[in-house]
Design goal:
There is one protein chain. The chain has about 500 residues and is of the alpha+beta class. Helices cover about 30% and strands about 20% of the residues. The chain contains 16 helices and 24 strands. The protein has helices at about 5, 15-20, 25-35, 45, 80-90, 115-125, 155-170, 245-260, 270-275, 280-290, 335-345, 370-375, 380, 390, 410-425, 495-505, and strands at about 55, 65-70, 75, 95-100, 105-110, 140, 185-190, 205-210, 215-220, 225, 230, 235-240, 310-315, 320-325, 330, 350-355, 360-365, 395, 425, 430-435, 450-460, 460-470, 480-490, 510. A hairpin with a 4-residue loop joins strand 10 (about 225) and strand 11. Helix 7 runs parallel beside helix 8 and helix 9 (about 270-275) packs across helix 10 (about 280-290). It is globular. The structure holds protoporphyrin IX containing FE (HEM) and iron/sulfur cluster. Protoporphyrin IX containing FE binds near residues 56, 106, 397, 442 and 443.
C-alpha cells in the first residue's frame, strides 16, 4: 500500500514502515530471525519492529539486547523473579535488570539467539513483554501497596491486569492496539497519595466518590517529550472500577483512529485534545465507549503527599508488614534477584512489588520475623533506611546502554548523591531525578531537583552537562517542575547542587 492510499495526511517515516508491515508481525518471525542472526535482519525489523515484542537492539552494545517486560501494577511472584534472574545470570557481568520508572523491569545483556527460548520461559511463568515498546501502551502502573495498604480505596492489581489483558489479548498480542500514533501511558491510583504520578499519564484514573459510590475521575493527556511537557487534564468523566478496561480501550481507539500520524513531535494524545477541544474529544470517547459518561465527581480522594514506601510499614492485614527496599538507581544483578526471591518467600508472602521510584517492596512479613529479616545481609545493599539524598534518587539508563544519552547517568547520580551525603546534613529526603537526554525517561519534571543531560562547551572542549529543573511537586496538587539552570558541566555540578541543597532544602554543612 502506498502511504498516500493509507491516509489523507502525509505520514511520517515511522508510519510508513508500519503500513509496510505491522510491528506485531515479527512475533511469528522471531524463530526464523534468531536462526538468521541479528546481523542479517532488515534494519527496520531490528531497530524498530522488534520493540513490539519488547526486544530493544542497543546500538551502544550491539549483540547485547535489552528486553522490556510488562508487569501490570509492578507485581511479580518469587518464581517469576527467579526465572528472570536465571535469564540474566546466563550473561555474567553483561546481564542485569533495571527497575524502571513505570514499575517495570528491563533485562540486559541478552543474546539474540536466546529469545525464542526466553519467550517460552516467560510464557510458562505467566510473564510477557508484548507491546512494551514503540507505538504501544506502556506498562500499566498502579499502587505499589495495592491490597495491603490500610489507606487504600481499592486494590488496583486486578484493574491494571484487566487493562493489560484487554490491550494485549492476555499477553498474546492484540492487533487492535499495536498501531497507535505514538506511545501511550495508563495509570490507576488506588490510595490517597497518587503514588503513580497520575499527572504524567495519557490516561489516569484517580479515586473519587460520587453520590456515595466509589469510582474514578478520569484525567487525560499528560505526557513528557523533548519539546513539550503537559500535566494530564480532567476529562470531566467518572467511571466505576469495572469500566476501566473498556474505557481505556475506547480512548485508545479514538487516539488510534484520529491522532496525528504526520509529525511525531505532535502525535501524543494531548495534541489531539488540543486540536479538537476537550468537548469534541469527550464526545468521541463517549461514542466509542457506547454510552454517555457521567460528569466527574467534584473532588477526588488524592489528599496526601506521596509516600516512598521505604522501610517497614504495617499492612492492613493485622500482624503483617511490608518492607520497602531501596535499590540504588534501580539496578539489580542476577544473584541479588535470586536473593530477593528467597527473602520474599522465607519472610513474606512471596510477592515482589516494583515502584516508580525504582525500588522494591516485599509483602506479608509477620511481626515475629522482622528482627531476623533486618539482619539479612542483602539489606546492606538494598537498605530499609537509605540516606536522604540517595533515598529518592531516580535515574534513567543513560550512556551506558542508551544511544540517545548525552551523559552517563546512573553511576554519576549515585556518586554525587553519596559525596553530598558525606558533606551535608539533611533532615528531609530530596527527590533527585536524572535523565540522560531531553526525552525525559527519568522524569526530571516531577523531581525536587531534576537533571537533564546535555552537552556544553568548556575550555574549548565539548563536555557532558545538565540542565537543572526545579519545582516538581508530586502527590496532592501535583505540578511539573521547570528548567531553572542551563548547561552546567557535570564536572562543575557538585557545588551547584550543594548550594541548592543548602539554600532550598534546609541542608547544613557537616563539620
Ligand atoms: C522520543 C522520545 C523518547 C525516546 C526516543 C525514548 C527512548 C527510550 C529508550 C531507547 C529507552 C531504553 C533505554 C535503555 O534502557 O536501554 C527508554 C527507556 C524508558 N523510557 Fe523513554 N524515550 C522517550 C520518551 C520517554 C518519555 C517521555 C517517557 C515518560 C516520561 C519515557 C519513559 C521511559 C521509561 C520509564 C524507560 C525505562 C527506563 C527508566 O526507567 O529509566 N520515555 N526510552
Ligand atoms: S532519557 Fe534519553 S538517555 Fe535516558 S533512557 Fe530516555 S532516551 Fe535514553
Amino acid at each position: 500500500m502506498t502511504p498516500s492510499a493509507a491516509a489523507p495526511t502525509k505520514l511520517n517515516k515511522f508510519e510508513k514502515y508500519k503500513v509496510e508491515k505491522d510491528g506485531l508481525a515479527v512475533k511469528d518471525e522471531l524463530k526464523q530471525f534468531s536462526e538468521l542472526g541479528w546481523e542479517a535482519l532488515d534494519e527496520t525489523d531490528l531497530v524498530h519492529r522488534l520493540k513490539w515484542l519488547g526486544i530493544f537492539f542497543r546500538p551502544v552494545t550491539p549483540g547485547q539486547f535489552m528486553l522490556r517486560l510488562r508487569i501490570a501494577n509492578g507485581i511479580l511472584n518469587a518464581e517469576q523473579l527467579r526465572v528472570l534472574a536465571s535469564i540474566v545470570q546466563r550473561y555474567g557481568d553483561d546481564g542485569s535488570a533495571d527497575i524502571t520508572t513505570r514499575q517495570n523491569l528491563q533485562l540486559r545483556g541478552i543474546r539474540f539467539e536466546d529469545f525464542p527460548n526466553i519467550f517460552e520461559q516467560l510464557q510458562q511463568a505467566g510473564l510477557t513483554s508484548i507491546q512494551s515498546g514503540m507505538d504501544n501502551v506502556r506498562n500499566i502502573t498502579g499502587s505499589p501497596v495495592a491490597g495491603i495498604d490500610g489507606a487504600e480505596f481499592i486494590d488496583t492489581i486486578p484493574l491494571c491486569q484487566a487493562i493489560q489483558d484487554a490491550i494485549t489479548n492476555h499477553g498474546t498480542g492484540n492487533p487492535e492496539y499495536t498501531n497507535l500514533p505514538r506511545k501511550f501511558n495508563i495509570a490507576v491510583a488506588g490510595g490517597p497519595d497518587n503514588s503513580v504520578h497520575a499527572e504524567i499519564n495519557d490516561i489516569a484514573y484517580v479515586p473519587a466518590f460520587k453520590d456515595g459510590h466509589f469510582g474514578f475521575n478520569v484525567l487525560v493527556g499528560g505526557f513528557f517529550s523533548a519539546k513539550r511537557c503537559e500535566a494530564a487534564i480532567p476529562l470531566n468523566a467518572w467511571v466505576t472500577a469495572h469500566q476501566l478496561a473498556d474505557l481505556s480501550c475506547a480512548i485508545l481507539r479514538v487516539f488510534r483512529d484520529h491522532g496525528s500520524r504526520a509529525n511525531r513531535q505532535k502525535s501524543r494524545l494531548m495534541w489531539l485534545i488540543d486540536d479538537w477541544g476537550l468537548d469534541q474529544f469527550r464526545a468521541a470517547v463517549e461514542a466509542e465507549f457506547g454510552q454517555s459518561l457521567p460528569d466527574a465527581a467534584p473532588n477526588d480522594e488524592i489528599a496526601w503527599d506521596k509516600r516512598d514506601h521505604i522501610g517497614i510499614h504495617p499492612q492492613k492485614q493485622p500482624g503483617l508488614h511490608y518492607a520497602g527496599l531501596h535499590v540504588p538507581v534501580g539496578r539489580l544483578k542476577a544473584d541479588e534477584m535470586f536473593e530477593i526471591a528467597r527473602l520474599a518467600q522465607v519472610y513474606g508472602h512471596g510477592d515482589i512489588r516494583l515502584t516508580v521510584e525504582q525500588n522494591l517492596i516485599l509483602t506479608g512479613l509477620e511481626t515475629a520475623k522482622l528482627d531476623a529479616f533486618r539482619q539479612e545481609p542483602l539489606l546492606k545493599t538494598f537498605s530499609l533506611s537509605p540516606a536522604p539524598l540517595v533515598r529518592e534518587l531516580v535515574s534513567c539508563t543513560g550512556a551506558k546502554f542508551c544511544n540517545f544519552a548525552l551523559v552517563e547517568t546512573k553511576q554519576r547520580a549515585l556518586a554525587l548523591a553519596q559525596d553530598l551525603t558525606e558533606e551535608l546534613n539533611l533532615t528531609q529526603a530530596v527527590r533527585i531525578h536524572w535523565t540522560g537526554c531531553p526525552n525525559s525517561c527519568g522524569q526530571p519534571q516531577v523531581a525536587d531537583i531534576g537533571l537533564m543531560g546535555t552537552k556544553t562547551r568548556k575550555d574549548g572542549q565539548t563536555v557532558e552537562a545538565v540542565d537543572i529543573y526545579m519545582g516538581g511537586k508530586v502527590g496532592k496538587d501535583a505540578q511539573l517542575g521547570e528548567r531553572v539552570l542551563k548547561s552546567i558541566p557535570c564536572d562543575d555540578l557538585k557545588p551547584v547542587l550543594r548550594d541548592l541543597l543548602l539554600e532550598k532544602f534546609g541542608a547544613t554543612a557537616r563539620a
